What does this fold into?
Amino acid sequence: MDKRKELETPVERKGRLTTVLALATLISAFGSSFQYGYNVAVVNSPAPFMQEFYNKTYTDRYKEPMGENLLTLLWSVSVSMYPLGGLFGSLMVAPLVNKLGRKGTLLFNNIFSIVPAIMMGVSEIAKSYEIIIVARFGVGICAGLSSNVVPMYLGELAPKNLRGAIGIVPQLFITIGILAAQVMGIRHILGNSTGWTIMLGLTAIPAVIELVLLPFFPESPRYMLIQKGDEKNSRKALQRLRGWNDVDAEIEEMSLEDQSEQAEGRLSVLSLLSQRSLRWQLVSVIIMNMGQQLSGVNAIYYYADSIYGSAGVNQKDVQYVTVGTGAVNVFMTIAAVFIVESSGRRLLLLLGFGICCGACVLLTVALNFQESVSWMPYISIACVIIYVIGHAIGPSPIPNVVTTEMFRQAARPSAFMVGGSVHWLSNFIVGLIFPFMESGLGPYSFIIFSAICLVSLIYIWIVVPETKNKTFLEVSQMFAKRNKTEIKVGDGDWPLKDSKESLESSEKTTTF
It folds into this structure.
C-alpha cells in the first residue's frame, strides 16, 4: 500500500509548448522532414531538362543519341531510386536509434543528404547522369530514416496532451517541402535548363542547419531513462522541455513503463512479429501505412496536370495550379495540427479515408464523362482538391502519430522499422504498377483506390482505438483485451490513473 501511495503522490501537470520544445520540433522537422517532401517533388518540373542532359551526356560519350527506351529506363530508375533508398533507410531505423539515440540518428542522417546534394549539384559539370541516380538513392535513405525517426523523437519529447499536434508537424513540413519544390520548379525560377542542378543541390541547406542547431537540444528523455538508465540527464532534459523543475510524475510514468517491459528487453523485428501482446498494434500499423500509400495519392497527382489541362487551364499555367494544390495540402495539414487534440486521431483517420474513397468514386465518373459533358472537367478539379483535403487531414499525418502511441519504448524502433518499410515498399509498388494500371484501366484505376480506402476505413472503425491523451502504457492496456494478454505494471497489479480500461495483472509475452 505504501508503495502504491508513493507512486500516486506526484501530481501530473498539463504539458505546454515551451520554447525548447517548439524549437526542437521546428529544427528537426525542417532539417529532416522538409527534405523528404522536397525530394519527392524536386524532379517533377525539371524532368525534361534532366532527360535532355542524360541524352546529351550519352551522345558526347558514344557519339550517337540515346534510344528512347534506354532514356525511359534510366529516367524510371532515377525516380524509383528514391523510394528504394527510402526502404533501405527504414530498415536501418531500429539499429541506429537504439545505438545512437533519436537525436543522434537525425544528426548522423544528414550525411545522406549533404553528400548526395553535392553530387547532384556537380553532376552537370562532371557530365555524369550516374551520379544523379546514386545520389537519388542516397537522399532516399535520408528520407527513409527521417520519415520514421522524426515522429519517434518528437512523440517522445512531447507531453501526452500535445503529442498529436506535435506528431503532425513532420507531415506538415513534408507538405511544405513539396510546395517549396513546386515553387522552385516554376520555369522562370529554377525549373529550367540552367537552374535544375542548383534546385537539386538545395536539399543540403536544411541538413546543414539541423547539423549546426540540433546538438543544442535534448535527446529523448524516454530513451535516456528507459534504454540508457540515465535518470539524471533524463530529468534535466524533461525540465528543459517542460519549463518547470517538478517532473516526478513523468519520471514515475516512464519508470512504470520500464518495469512493465523489462522482461522483454529491446525487441528485434523478429521478436516483435512473434509477440502476441503486440499482434493487433502491428497489424494496425501495416494496414494504415499500406492504406496511406495505396489509396491513390500518387495517382491523383499524376492525373492532376491532365485534369487541369482538360478544364481549359493553359499549359503554361498548369504549374501555378499545381502550386495551388500544394498550398491546399499545406493549409489542411496545418488545420490537422490544431484539431487533432480536440477531435482525436481515430476520427481524422475515418474522415480522411472516407473523403478519399468518395472523391475517387466521383473522379472515376467525372473522368469518364469529361469529353461528353462540358462542365465535367470542373467536377474533376473539385475531386482532386477534395481528395487532397481528405488525405491531408487523416491518412497522411496520423499513421506516424498513432505508431508512436501504440508501442512502448522497447518495441517502438522495430515498429517504426516495419511501418516505414511497408510505407516505402507500397510507395515503390505504386510507382512501378500505376503506369500499367493507367494504360490498361484508365480512369477505372480509381475504383481500386476507392476500395483500398474503404477497406482501411472499415479496419480502423473496428480495430483502432482512440489514443488521444493516453500514456503509452495505457494504450498498450487498451489493446490487451483484443490481444488476449494481460499487462503487468512493476511488481504489482495497480491500475493506471485516468485509464478507462481495467489493468490486468500481468502481461504474458507469448508467441502466436
Observations:
- The chain has a mean pLDDT of 82.
